[in-house]
Amino acid sequence: MKTIKASLIGFGSVGQGVAKVLLRKQQELKLLGLDIKVVAIADSKTAAINLAGLNLEEILKRKESEGIVGDEKANGNEIILDIEHDLVIETTPTNIDTGGVGLLNMLTAFSKKRHVVTSNKGPLALRYRELESLASRSGCAFKFEATVGGAMPLLNLVRNTLAGNEVLSIEGIFNGTCNYILSRMMEEHATYELMLAEAQELGIAEKDPSYDVEGIDTACKLVILANAIFGMDVTYKDVSITGISRITPEALMLAEADGYVIKLIGEVSKNRIQVAPRLVPIGHPLAVGGTLNVASLQTDLAGPVIVVGRGAGSIETASAILSDIISIYKN
Q: Fewer CB atoms near the end CB (10 Å): N or C, the chain?
């Protein structure tokens, strides 16, 4: 049995999802020979530290009742620097302008020779090549399946199942909020503003939805795919972006009359990286509804490969994080 000491930095929706998944999958992990002990957790205000392993159930209860994880005042970066452990699970919020604390956490982790598994898109959308190089030089694993499609496996699919194939292009729907709004506008023949308000009421859209609806979230995911799969060296600023806020019910109805739906499509290849609303034939594999994500990979040997899944959600995203953790240690 291999004991892995981990820190969990960021304890919002995704961080709590990771804790719940680790609790739920304890026995399955032990069957794989893995005993994951979370020795430190940090949220935005407090931290909890126990080198023998924290009680995740108690931490989750305290977070729900008191809004904090513990009594320590250490921040995430201090934990990564000072607490001896093997793995950093980085789930702090995305900051697309500077990379935020997530970038500092990752840089510190590699300087201390700790593996990193993350759901945080910001640092990868801004400084992917630098992070990848630092991880390689320090002999550390750097895993980020959860940054692109939530529970929808793309990076591991390409690197493992499709190994030996050249991926020629990837296109698809990478934001469930936009897909929900466009699907509901079409179903109800309703305005963008009305369906955005519905999505916000249901918790599908944020109070400030611009990151999703203006295509920024999709652009960040394309940048990660471009760098990780196509070997490019691009940042968020290299993406051509058009969001969905100007789409009208009339445009959707005209499209429907001609046998199409309008979807926010992200596309990446060696020659193109773009986010924009597009006409998609009704019944086409990319014409999924609701909050689903979908990706179509064009490959030289396997041909087209379609992947559909939930692109968001705390447990769904945590499933990708767990998969990455297992992939580091299973051998």
A: C
